[in-house]
Amino acid sequence: MEDTILVPRSESCGGPALKLFNDNFINSIKFKNLPKKYELIGKGSYSRIIISEEIENDKVIKCIRKSSVQSNNRKYLINEIKIMKQINNDLIVKMFDLFQSEDSFNILLERGIMDLFVFSKNKQYSKKICNFILRDLSISIEYIHSMSIYHRDIKSENIIIFNENEENYQFKLSDFGISIVDNDAGIGKCGSIGFNSPEMSNKIQFSRKKADYWAFGAVILEQLLGQHRFVNEWLMLYYDRKHKKLSNLYENALKIFKKEGFDFDWSILDNLLNIDPNRRYLPNNTKIINNFTNFLIKNKSI
């Protein structure tokens, strides 16, 4: 099944995904009024996120304008709903309800603090935060892949932080609008610039699972470098298309950052961002947890 084109980071692309529901599914969504009083806490190109005293404090409503749900947008909505109905994992944002009102389709979701992109603005590298992300995303990504679900748009904007206390942070995967339930072989580019794996091409097949691993590695790299260094095309600029490999510029660039004194296990990125998809693996969670526990003990956090 073919994937689609590369798009800017702030947007998402689609392509054939699930065997889509027809209009009967849309029409079957129950009608229910939105809260009369609410607070807008987020806004996108075709949706908004609201909270209200009329719903539980730990939930938000994602309101998707009906006027925007046409053609491709409609299938993305249906795609996300079907996938979220299948998922039951503590490290993936939960969907509790689905209803429609006069002007919008509405999804009742688990409420987090903020997304990782907002959280990371102007922040310096934190080994503790990186280990939390590695621990949690390794589990959620492995879980969806076990169900033949491929996210295709892993980036910091789609990772939601839960729990106010830093010692109990959880990082949950969200936004399955352009995810796919299919076999592992994909063709074409899909997702956000800067998070696409180099082998993604309109002409050759690639592993969707290994492409998700690469995007995960790019999220970690962004945490290490900071958003001011990790520009959209950061990794792609260092990709030597002629020889189908990462150029020496990439290795030299990483060497500079490795010399800056980051307390980080660089072998994790060497695996996630390996130019050879067959040598690209998720981090060993047992090793991460053990190393992290030792780090906390050493720093008297536990």
In order across it, which strands form the biggest sheet?
A: 1-2-3-5-4
CATH architecture group name of the largest domain:
Orthogonal Bundle
Helix share, percent: 25-40%
Q: What's the number of helices? A: 9
| Gyration radius over CA | 20 Å
Portion in strands:
15-25%
Are there runs of 5+ residues with pLDDT below 50, and where? 10-21
GO biological process, one term: mitotic DNA damage checkpoint signaling
GO molecular function: ATP binding; protein serine/threonine kinase activity
Organism: viral metagenome
Pfam family, one: Pkinase
General description of the model:
The chain has 302 residues and is an alpha+beta fold. The protein has two domains: 23-110, Phosphorylase Kinase, domain 1, CATH 3.30.200; 114-298, Transferase(Phosphotransferase) domain 1 (Transferase(Phosphotransferase), domain 1), CATH 1.10.510. It is 33% helix and 18% strand. The chain has nine helices and 14 strands. It has helices at 23-28, 71-86, 116-120, 127-146, 208-225, 234-237, 248-258, 266-272, 285-298, and strands spanning 39-43, 47-51, 59-65, 95-100, 104-110, 114-115, 149-150, 159-162, 170-173, 180-181, 185-187, 205-207, 239-240, 245-246. The chain has a five-stranded antiparallel sheet with strand order 1-2-3-5-4, covered by helices on one side. The chain has a three-stranded antiparallel sheet with strand order 6-8-9. It is globular, with a radius of gyration of 20 Å.
Topology overview:
Blueprint: H1 23-28, E1 39-43, E2 47-51, E3 59-65, H2 71-86, E4 95-100, E5 104-110, E6 114-115, H3 116-120, H4 127-146, E7 149-150, E8 159-162, E9 170-173, E10 180-181, E11 185-187, E12 205-207, H5 208-225, H6 234-237, E13 239-240, E14 245-246, H7 248-258, H8 266-272, H9 285-298
Antiparallel strand pairs: 1-2, 2-3, 3-5, 4-5, 6-8, 7-10, 8-9, 11-12, 13-14
